[in-house]
Structures are given as structure tokens and as C-alpha cells.
Here is the input.
Amino acid sequence: MFKEPSFLKKANLFQPILVVVISIIGGTPMEGANTGKIVLLVILGAAFIVWHVECQRLINRNREMKKQACTLKNRSAALYKKTYAALSGEYENFANKLNGEDRREKKADGSRATTESFNSACLFLCSTIAAALAEYKSSLIFEVLYIQAEWQQGQTFLRVTGYAQGEHNNDIPSLLAQPPRPVTGTPSMLDEQLFAERHLSPVVLSGPAEVRRSFFRKRNQPPEEKYMQYLAIPVLSRRNEIIGLIEVSVKKNPFIFPVVMLETHELADIRSWLYHLKDHFLLFHEIERAVRHDLP
Here is the structure.
């Protein structure tokens, strides 16, 4: 990832030459008071010292950059390791639930139990993401949502089916109890706009200014002040339609200063991680669709 700087390459070539030149000049017998030779030796000696110090500084910086890159890779690997280890058990749990429901069902509303299992799976995925993020960067205050699209009589509705928060948050979410929101031609929030426009690529708002400018869509709504950063990863069906949205929002705590936020490389790392996780949400969607015959 890190190549040796060109300055260091030149240093490795010219530093021995400089030492040889100083040795030759210094070893030449002086005839009387040869001031020019003394001045030349002083200049060459000073140049050698400066050259050596600069080379050492660059070597140390290069070593530190490699160390930071290694640390970042380890943190990124921990994200994947933690989530995939948890998911392997959840797939078995989800399958067992559906299998048990299939045996019990023959009752009037079998689809409801399947929906509850799907919602539990979404909650589990959001909780797994939140736990990994809390470990990835301590003191980060955030919330994780999964928004599912539903279609009723040709109209798209959005419903929160998964929610989790960082370990420093204790709010009881009311989002899970809210009725589905319709997606209209004049969306009031960014997530509604993403569904309305069929936005297929991830969205990253890296700072408070971007969040204030983009989060709410109607002019009469006040700017968003609670969220500092925002990531949204669309979950796409096999037909390339948005069927869900993974959202991670970094929140501001008025009692903590400065506000802990994700750095640019951390945002890129988490965006890539969530992009891979979207396939797990899709898999749960596909399982639910296979079991529930009332879904389109």
C-alpha cells in the first residue's frame, strides 16, 4: 500500500557518495591555512547532518503510516468477523422459527407469524451492526435503522422493521410502532426521496452541513440538528428494485464536546462493510417471500 518515498531512494543513493566526498576532501593534506577547504567541509558536514535527519524523519513517518494502515485493517477485519459470526447463528435461529411456524400453521393467519420472524431478523441485524460499530469506534453515538418498502394497491409505503442504538443511548424507540409512511411525489424526508427516485447507490453525508441541507426535503421543515453524519445503503431485489434501506446516523450529544464523528477513511470503511451486509437483509427478504404467498 505504501511505497518508499522518492526522497528516501535518492538518499540511499547519494548519502554514501556524500560521505566519500567528505572523506576525500578531509583526507587531503592542507597547505597552510586553507580556509576554503574548511568552509567546504563545514558545508558538506552540515548538509550530511540535515540529509540524515530528514531521511530519518521520513522513515519514521513511513513506518507510522504503515502502522496506522495495519491498525485500520485490523479494525475493518473485526467488523466483518463480529457480524458474520453472529449471523451464522441467526440464520439457524430464523430457519428454526419458520420451520416451527410451518408445523403449527394451518391456522387462519400464518403470514403474521412469518412477518414477526422477519422483523425479529431485521432487529437482530441492526443490533449486530450497532454492536460492531460501538466496538469499531468507542464514544460514537449513533442509531441504526432498517426501513422496509411495502406495496399496497400500487402505492409504496415505508415501515421501520429494524432499530438499534449505540451503547451510549438509552432512548426507547417509538419508530417501530409508527404506521407505514407513504412515498409521494413530494417527499418530506431523504429516505422517502431515495425510494421515490429509485436511488440505487449508497448515500454518504459526511458532515453536519450536508445533513442539514439534505435530510428534510420540505421548505417549511427546520434543518436537522440532531444528526452529524448519515449513511444509507439501498437493499435491491433481483429485479433491481429498492426493497429496503439500511441507515446509520451519527448523533450529537450536547453533553459531550467535541462531538465524536467518523473520519473520512472510517466512513469509507463502514460504507464498504454495510454494502456487503445488504445481501444478508436481501436473503431474509427472499426467505420471507418464499414462505409468504401474499407478497407480490
